[in-house]
Each structure stands twice: as C-alpha cells, then as structure tokens.
Write a structure and sequence with these properties.
Length: 600
C-alpha cells in the first residue's frame, strides 16, 4: 500500500512539476485506471489541497473534473470522510477560480453535513471558515461573524480569529475587533506565521489611525517592518509604507508622508497590490494639494479614482504604468509650454502691449466662454438622447449584437452548434384568462415575466421573446460558454420554483395563479436580427421546434429535458435525473425525455 501511495505522489508531482505544462488529462486518466480505495481518495484530496496552497492550474476544467471524480469514487466506496473533503474542495474551487459563491455554498454545506455525521471537528471548522469568508466578501459581516465563531468553537484556528477581528472592524466595533486581533497575534506568534502577524499589526495601525490615536498607530505600523526586512521581499513593504504615509499626513508631517507614499506607490509596480496603490495615490494627491502643486495633485487624484474603481478592466500594474507614462509626457509638455511662455514674455514687456493684450484676451474670452457654454449644453443634450437611445437598444438586443449594429449598420446572422433552448407555457391559459379582467391578466403575466427576466440575467441566458403566455430564451448565444447548458437548466428550475411559490402566495389570498410547463433542448440554431422597423433578435432551426415539443410534453411543476441535454449534464452532481422513456411528440415521433431536479 505504501508503494501505491508513493507512486500516486510521484505521478502527481511529475504531472504538475512544471506550471507551464500541467496535464490534468493524464492525471484523470491515471485516476480512472487506478484501484478505488480510501487510501487513493485520501491521496487525491491531499493533492488537491496542495494545489490550492500553491497555484490553481491553467486547466481549470481539468481540476474541476479531478475534484468531482474524487467525490464520485468516494461515494461509490461509501467513504464519507473522502466525500466531505472533495465537496469542500469543490466549494473552494468555485471561490478561488470564478468567485462563484452561488455554486460554492451548496458544496460547502454538503461537506459540512458529511463532516458533522463523521464528527470531524477540524473539517467542520474549515467549512464554517469558508462560509464566513463568503459572507465577508459579499459584505454580510454579521453572518461572517457567526460563521467564524462556529469555526472557532470546533477548532482554534488563528485565521478564523483574524477574520473575526476584521469583520468587527467593518462594523466599526473596534472594542471587539481589538480583542480578537490581540488573540490572533498571540496564536500567530506561537505558530511563527509572520504574514498573519503582519496583517494584524497593519489592521491595528489602521484602526488606531481612524481613532486618532497616533502613538498606538505608529507603534503597530512600525512592528510590521522588521519581519519584512528578514524576508528580502522588497514589494512586501508597499502596504506598511502606505499606512505609515497616512499616519504622517494626519500628523501634518507632509514631507514624511510624501516620502513614504511615493515609496509605496513605486513598490506597487513590483506587486499587484491595488489596496496600497489606492492609499498611497490618495496621500500623494493630498500632500501636493497642501503644497499648492495642483497639477500633480490632480494627476494623482485621477489615478486614485482609477485604481479605486472596482470595475476597472485590465491589470493594476498596467494601469499604473500607463498613467506614469502619461505623467512623464505631460511633464515634458509643461516644460515646452513654460519655455514658450518665457519667450512670449520677453517679446511683450511694455506696459501698453500688456494692456492691449489683456483687453483683447478679455473680449475674446467672453466670446469664447459664451460659445463654449452653448456647445457644452448642446453636447450634454445630445449625449443624454444618445444614452436613452442606447439604453433602449440594449433592452431589445444583446450587447454584442447592438454594438455590431451601431458600428456596421447591420448584424450578420450566425450559426451556433450547441445552443440550449428554453420554452415555457402556462397550463390552461384560456380558461385562466376567463377568471380575470384584461388588465389583471396582463398584470399577472407581466409580473411573471419580470421574474423570469431577472432569472435570465442571473444565469446569463438570452431572452429571445414572449409569444402570448409563452416565454422563449436561449443559453450559449450570442457568446457560447462552457456553462451555458447547465445555467439554462438551473434557470428553468428556478423559474418553476418562482411560479410554484407565487401560486402558494396567491392561493392564500384566494386569487387564481398560473401553473407552468418547461421544456429544454440543446442543438444547433441560427440567430440574427429580423426586420428593419421594430427589429428583433430571433433564433431559427429544428432545435427550436423540438424544444417547443419537449415543453408541450412536459408536466406542470417539472422541468422536462431532451436526451441531447441530458447527455451533456448526466455526470454533473448538481442534478438528479428521472427517465421518462420515449414519448410521442407531435410532428417529431418518439423522443427520449427526462425530468431534471436539483440534487439534495
């Protein structure tokens, strides 16, 4: 058995020894051909854990398959501990690769349930820690605090204590925050974890700054420097320098503030540290403003807001480099302008020329100001109309198609080999409509379709159109994606849940409510714009017709899918499938169909 274990380790590190040559397919093939045992599952999980501690491979889909296969093997041999760890890794995968918390949470909760059955206190603690991290990142700080406390109840982990402290900081509860910071510091000292220790010192320094306790702030900020000096990693100084510069600025020691802020700013070019860059550029801007150098103050203020923008596209270091180049260019231009101004000054020394020039400039400025004001207001009005038009266009067409239409005046039809079509229809709509007035009927349909539109946005599904009481949408267009089939089925399930819940609410009030069938089918379609007036993005093909038949053969409250869609999702543990066999569909003959639901 020991030889088997060493062989798996050797294979793992042979495959992943070179970050540029990660071959997940080879590893998966080895996994499938190896004997299934608890030892093998433990080793697979141990290897996944080592990957998270180092670096996620570029082949993310391969890592996802490796994790899910580990879970399947553990499930087949009924190894609960292995299943729990694999589900935990699946949650971490969704967090670390795509920050997809809606997928991460169910996996971690499944892991937590399994760990609780096994009475594994360390596993339970880790699950609560991850749930706390998700709560913190999504800014549900109270929930984060509850989860971190649960984590500590099962295992004394300084990371949970540290995260508990910064959660209280976000809620401005500095008393409890300090208590947990000091506790985390004691634990980090015992385990000699310098990075965690430094983070605590920096947060304490920042907290004392906000309380105007400058002596305490400087004390803790200085504590961060000696450990970094031992690490020989210059870029690690960027954050302490940024916070120290803030300390000096608040103490009105402008030269020292500028010195440390500039050092921090330069170091952010070595390390993609957006937080330090945001702090340092703000301090530099404020110092230059105090020194009446408004040109530099404006430059660094613009850079500060650029870095602070959470939706900034592109790498932070690249943005800083671009702004730095722009600053060098404007500085050269300023020198040229200054030289030119000096030459003009020499030529226009006399009092009369200055007087005439001044009057002339005054007259021209008045005329130009009036003209510029008129142009500015006209441009603002035109921009407003343009924004309204573009907003309406994006409500009608997908963003990519709208952009193509604006640039070229037309948009080409495209073939999509693997689109997933979603059809819905309300049961007995004609009889239902007799129970309501026209306005109430339209209002109820509108409420349902608004709910559907929100679900489409959530899962990045393209709404195509509504036809009476029917709703048509498609996943994987106009931009194909790996998850489009899965997301379309998840959207279909959520639509059914929405209608079922709405029916329960309306029936309590004694009001009639819709019941719905949903059908999903995957296959090739053609998509494009039809018409010249009131144009519309539409789809065509036999796949659309088949999806309609799948829907009509469905059952109220269920999501009915075709064999083609089932084949693409059958290995996904998110879903549970129920075979319906072959069912006669109008104009299509017998079609293999399946009911799909979420896995418990």
């Amino acid at each position: 058995m020991k030889k088997c274990l060493l062989y798996i380790v050797f294979i793992s590190f042979t495959v992943f020894g070179n970050d540029e040559n990660m071959d997940m397919d080879r590893l998966l093939a080895k996994m499938r051909s190896s004997p299934e045992s608890k030892l093998a599952v433990d080793q697979y999980n141990h290897f996944i854990d080592s990957m998270f501690r180092s670096e996620i491979p570029k082949n993310k889909r391969g890592l996802y398959n490796y994790i899910t296969n580990t879970y399947k093997i553990a499930k087949r041999i009924n190894y609960k501990h292995g299943m729990a760890m694999a589900q935990y890794h699946l949650g971490k995968y969704h967090i670390s690769t795509y920050s997809n918390y809606s997928k991460a949470i169910p996996a971690i909760l499944t892991s937590l349930t399994l760990y609780e059955r096994e009475k594994d206190s360390l596993g339970i603690s880790q699950c609560y820690l991850q749930l706390g991290v998700i709560s913190y990142v999504t800014q549900y700080f109270e929930d984060g605090i509850k989860n971190f406390k649960h984590s500590l109840r099962y295992h004394n982990n300084p990371t949970s204590t540290y995260l508990l402290a910064i959660s209280y900081t976000e809620l401005n509860n500095f008393v409890l925050s300090k208590k947990y910071f000091f506790s985390a510091i004691d634990e980090y000292k015992k385990t000699n974890k310098i990075k965690g220790l430094n983070e605590c010192y920096m947060y304490l320094g920042k907290m004392y700054l906000s309380e105007q306790d400058f002596d305490s702030a400087y004390y803790y900020l200085k504590l961060t420097l000696p450990p970094i000096m031992k690490s020989d990693s210059e870029e690690d100084f960027s954050r302490p320098y940024a916070l120290i510069s803030e300390y000096f600025f608040l103490n009105r020691r402008l030269d020292s503030a500028l010195y440390y802020a500039q050092k921090s700013y330069k170091l952010t070019k070595l390390k993609d540290d957006q937080i330090s860059a945001v702090i340092s550029t703000e301090i530099i801007s404020k110092v230059y403003e105090e020194k009446k150098d408004f040109r530099k103050a404006l430059y660094f203020l613009q850079l500060h807001y650029l870095l602070k923008n959470e939706n900034m596209k592109g790498d932070t270091k690249q943005k800083i480099a671009e702004m730095h180049d722009m600053f060098d260019f404007t500085r050269k231009m300023d020198k040229e302008k200054q030289k030119h101004r000096e030459e003009i000054y020499k030529k226009n020394r006399t009092k009369n020329i200055f007087l005439v020039t001044g009057l002339f400039v005054l007259l021209v400025s008045g005329g130009l100001w009036s003209r510029l004001d008129y142009v500015r207001k006209s441009k603002a009005a035109l921009q407003h109309e343009k924004n309204v038009s573009e907003s309406l266009l994006l409500n009608i067409l997908p963003l990519e198609i709208a952009q193509e239409l604006k640039e070229n005046g037309s948009a080409k039809a495209r073939n999509f080999k693997n689109a997933t079509i979603l059809f819905t229809d309300f049961k007995s709509f004609t009889e239902f409509s007799e129970k309501l007035s026209a306005s109430d009927l339209v209002k109820e349909i509108n409420e349902c379709f608004i709910g559907f539109d929100s679900i489409m946005d959530k899962y990045s599904i393209e709404k195509i159109k509504t036809i009476g009481d029917a709703y048509l949408a498609a996943g994987g267009i106009p931009i194909p994606s790996e998850d489009s089939v899965k997301n379309t089925v998840l959207a279909a399930l959520e639509m059914q849940e929405y209608i079922i819940k709405r029916k329960e609410q309306l029936e309590i009030s004694g009001l009639p409510a819709f019941e719905m069938r949903v059908g999903v089918h995957t296959g090739p379609v053609v998509a494009g714009i039809v018409g010249v007036k009131k144009f519309q993005y539409d789809i065509w093909g036999d796949t659309v017709n088949t999806a309609s038949r799948i829907e009509s053969c469905g059952v109220v409250g269920k999501v009915n899918i075709s064999q083609a869609t089932y084949d693409l999702l059958k290995d996904d543990i998110t879903f549970t499938f129920e075979s319906r066999g072959k069912i006669e569909a109008k104009g299509k003959g017998e079609i293999e169909m399946w009911f799909v639901s979420r896995s418990v």
